[in-house]
């Protein structure tokens, strides 16, 4: 089985990477092939170090971390979120509410474990358009590391940076022609990859990427520079997931009405589901930069375009005990297609005039996220007598090994289920964003006041979001049913073909061989043909007549205008610099959302809005006793705006196919308030001339009105909107999930980081080096939920421990990196039953090697997730005992396998 070979594969991969003996020498003008060192050192924080270098981090005026292109190349991934998660205090994640984690790639990044929506995201200093209406976080799917020059993370932003940055700000910078050590540069890179899990299952498992970079300086004094890069990649992979399919109940009947499941003794679920995901990922894009460097003025024009798409499917088998006398096998299929796009054009420059430094720029950006033709299908059949018995001795694998032979044959047979019905949706959101800024700095010749800096900025964002169900009230469109002149087939006697007769592929050995039978992957085109041709049509004898309320019920159009101004000064007293400042941000938000008239057919758009302002004072201190040491302190106020979709987004339902019972409801909260925070940061950094660094940082955050995901029970809800499926049953205890403002939360922690190449050691040992970072933190939050009775919780997404360990070898010809990432237990959401949702720790070991051949060729080999660890594991409660029953997610325990990569590049 796969897991039995993980240590052998690890050893073999390390030996393969390190056994490549040196056979050439790197050229001096290729910065990527040489260890990074500090340039001429200076105690002045106003020096202009090269962007993306260790000098930039050393000379910054606050607590910053910089990741260079060389460091990004050491992480084997086509996803920028996976790459930057190796920086101190950062972690990356995806969730299963859209099945994104099943792609094996992370989508969002957190700073010090704070929810990613607490971060500010910029590209070359300009705000990026948002594609996911449910969060302020930027989906990083569309930004591949191929076209990124460096990443700068500001953990204590100064007043000249965005104020909506409780966690910090992340700025991704694209290259220019002036970033290279010679007037002309070109590089072609080709990568091939293979997913081990998909290979084991016998499904599509390969892919590759091609990238081209070109840079050229020309004109008088080489003052003009052009950089262009483009990439195109495709890869196929698979994932396996398992989860409960019904809420937990106490095993002891006497505890049946105990509201606190944590004290009710052993629990059980009556249903479990097993899913196979297949994905075909495509990622392509381009970016360009045209720069002119004059004597006193520099101008630039930058453009970036990125597309990320997934064509994927989920095939599922479920084992159910619908009542005390019968068992039932369920079948489920849906498409998991996702298309995201971002584009931005940035124009600006800087001028130096008589002691003034003036920066100015404007940006136009567009982002889109779509889920087209999201089709779901259900398969059922006869319901035999008996009960499935689930073996839960392995908490990650609820097998049916304890069931009778007849029931096991019934479950694993491909003829037990027949095709019953389909549903479908078209959903998406867009963001059109325009922003501009002007900043001016005046530098004094003498005295303690070194400079004064002030600026103005404006940002306007137009957001649209929609979710159109295919059929009236999102009802079932039954195969061969009333629309086609047939009967309204019940789930126990479907009118369609059996699962075994459907077109598709049968795989064996699923779930590492623990699924004791064949697993059918249904052909997606056949399922789509049962739904897409009939969307938005009338079916008066079945689903019902399609109405305006059906189409518009989850449609929102919103506008947000943000105006900001700041002023800050730099005071210098010998080796100490003091930077006090103030920022003010004014926000005006308005939205038009559909409201049903209550007749299940008509409605209207109604408006809402809010305006608020935030004063954000801050002060930073930097003490530099020598050229290679700096001590920092920062005290600032920051805030975070609630996301568009959390205020005025859609209401969604999780509904049992057969009974019509609502299993879960998710809805927005128009009364959400911004979160605010007071932040204290202290740090010490020590550098050496070879680029080594050792740093320690302590921090404290006091957050008011923090936003968390709340789940509570209801018997009815008048705010559900107008698109409630016909025949829906809402009873006591239905979990309703909604965002809420909590009270006060506190987070404090310690960060340690170091990196060094052991150049003082003799011989081959001088080529080895190590890097490590550790974040230890504690959070305490008061949700103000009545059912928590004053009980403190953690902050969502704030693990108590995160660390990265790295060992590298670099002799100028061979570069090898072995990196290990650990992200600890995280709180995901609160419930009212005593068992909150948690994400179990994630562990990833990666290997990346590059060998520099003569004549400009490089060849490399990499493995992602060497130990074949799970990539997502959600539980109820902190322990691993109970897989999470999360109505909005299809998978609590997820494996995605290893990814093997071969790289070839040519510099010319």
From TrEMBL:
Bilayer disposition of the protein: Multi-pass membrane protein
Keyword Transport attached: yes
Pfam families hit by this protein: Plug, TonB_dep_Rec_b-barrel
Motif (TonB C-terminal box): 891-908
Domain TonB-dependent receptor plug as annotated: residue spans: 63-168
Keywords: Cell outer membrane, Membrane, Receptor, Signal, TonB box, Transmembrane, Transmembrane beta strand, Transport
Secretion signal span: 1-26
GO CC, one annotated term: cell outer membrane
Subcellular location: Cell outer membrane
Domain TonB-dependent receptor-like beta-barrel: 420-866
Similarity annotation: Belongs to the TonB-dependent receptor family.
Family matches, as NCBIfam families: TonB-Xanth-Caul
The name this protein goes by in its record: TonB-dependent receptor
